[in-house]
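INFO  loader      accepted 1 record
INFO  loader      residues=315
INFO  predictor   begin
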Amino acid sequence: MRNSYVISVVAVIAAFSIISCKSANRAASNAAAEWKDIVAWKGDVSLNQKVLPAPLPDSASFAGERVPLNYRDVRESLQRELTTISYWHGSMTYIMQLAGRYQEQIQKILEEENIHPDFFYLCVAESSLQPVVSPAGACGYWQFLASTAREYGLEVSAQVDERYNVEKSTRAACVYFKKAYEKFGNWTLAAASYNIGMKNIEQRIGYQSITDYYDMQLPIETARYLYRALAFKTLMNNPKAYGFYLEDKDKFRPFECNEVIVKGKIDNWSDFAAEHNTNFKMLKLCNEWIRSNKLDNRRGKSYKVLVPVENAREL
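INFO  predictor   done
INFO  writer      dumping tokens
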């Protein structure tokens, strides 16, 4: 009796499995047919892609310091970041377009501050050249926290936030890099400390007895940080090698502006813009540091406002 019962149960399970398999196969077949309809391109020819690891350069450097590509772990780390960003097709194209607007300005400031132009790619890694806010509350092109921004001389308030001022935030970042270089003696650790803080780097030097970024054990974000900047540098200096074909006409140009010094109160920035033959949208686009529709300016500070010239929007 028990054996007959067991055999019956087994038979039922087997039959159910066969039915389930047939159902699963039918579902998979239907899904494949639907997918074929989605990706069909010119009849029966399917849309194909060929995904490859990004090629590594023969040599690399950051701020004049050699990247030891003879180390397997270093090569793997750089290739990871290069492969990642080279398949950000839309985002990477937009970053290179924005570079047409900001790269020359930022690298000119870096040169004036005696900072290597490679630090521009650290800015790219930080914000993609956009006035963004991180989950941790870091803001602007160089991603300063509010407390750090104030420490380095930037105004942060409800009406003015100079973390969004390209010139001022770049100069503040330069002050940080010089201080970090003086402390650590090389630009790679100075750059890494921008991600994790000087105190944290000092602690790791203390218990690892190492002052080389490429040898130091670091948290994953910081361990990837400099390689990400190196990847941006590599790709943006040789975009065609990674499949990006931008011409000069594809890159965004800076808007032509006049500098207007504001020392008093602004009751309404829209009215100010109209008085200068523009609008608040364009004024804000050229002065992201303006964070309100007015400026109380109780301390009587001087602000350099970039006012787009008439017809600055025209092609």
